[in-house]
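Hi everyone,

Forwarding the result from last night's run.
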Amino acid sequence: MSTPLAFDTRQFRDALGSFPTGVTVVTTIDSNGDARGFTANSFTSVSLDPPLVLVCLAKTAHSHEVFTQASVFSVNVLSDQQRAVSGLFASKAPDKFHRVAWSLSHIRTPTIHESLASFHCHTEQQVDAGDHTILIGRVQSFSTHPGKPLGYCRGAYVDYKDASEVEAAVRRGARVSALIDTPEGILLRREANMLQLPEASKLGSPTAASGLYQELRELGVNATLDFVFSVYEDTDGPCVVYRGRAPVSPVDARLCYLPLDAVATFDATDETTRSILHRYAREREQDLYGVYMGDSKDGRVLPLSPR
């Protein structure tokens, strides 16, 4: 009998997050007649004949009991114009349905207006699955609306066009940097007389023997890379900057830390690095991030939503 492999739960979650998904809001009416809903990206089709879909609901979710007792539910697939709707239903706001346009379907489940698709389901089956319950629904009817899907990958909303720009940069041999947030501040590497973000010729993987992850490991940094923060091109070619976090600040003579409250007065030799750090400090204070697309002189910042 083989021994199960031990692995870090957080790293497992991050690895799963590398799979891009859409975003949905799952809705029903509770026993008091109130509309209830939650945001989910764990949604997929199961069968065409009969028409079945499934969605996964955490057992710790506030609405778990409501949905496991419900005989009907709807899955509303969000468009790229509905990021605010996703954030609203992922929050604990008590008045969610007062802040969106919706109506009841023929099976009396809430349908969120302008969703790309809405699937109205009778609960076919519930499956106990670890720390989640799988809700399998038999689709009774559905509707569609024109638009582009809202994408989600590595803990952030991503426009599919933006994701293709990142992929194109990687295919052109982009350098890859990491903006790592630690308890002591942003991690910087000493290079000659300069301070710069840790960098490698490719991203690699958490277990690869080369790439950015390996570079960080050699510095003693156990970091999680959450999402792409910047994609730009300078005289050395394309560069992709990932935003990441490290739970502890490693001790290494090659490293130093820039406190966030010192970023505004930080005078980096590299203008691009200074611009990246200044933008990160602003966005972190607001807890609202974006991804920069352009070159080292001019570009645009497209909004993301943090995990």
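The first strand starts at residue 21 and ends at 22.

Cheers,
N.
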